[in-house]
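User: Structure please.
Assistant: Input sequence and predicted structure:
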Amino acid sequence: MASIVGAIIATLITVPYIVFFLVNKSMLKLTKKRRKAFKAGVDCTTLFLFLAIERMTMEIWGQSYYWILLLMFLFGCLLFTYVIWKNDLDLSIGKILRLNWRLQFLVLSIGYFSLMTYGIISRILDI
């Protein structure tokens, strides 16, 4: 049983957009609201993108660059704090974290596809 759960988790980390598809479709069935379903899919997929990129860097270069991902997350929080503070909007931690989490989805999606392309090309050229 543990090996089945491990295989499912490994698959979801390897291909995080499966999580997006599953969460999006299930939330759409439950709520009938496309926007809410899309946001839930993005929020769940971001965690799996963090894990996928960390595993890709381990496979490609042999060492983890997780600290860069954490610095990107903290920089995003600082950026949104500054922008919200300068525009005299309500400065709440929840709003900053939510905006940054969704920004990280975009950044990590670009990183995921870039690393996947780089990894495939580097493996082909090594042969």
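The two ends are 37 Å apart (CA to CA).
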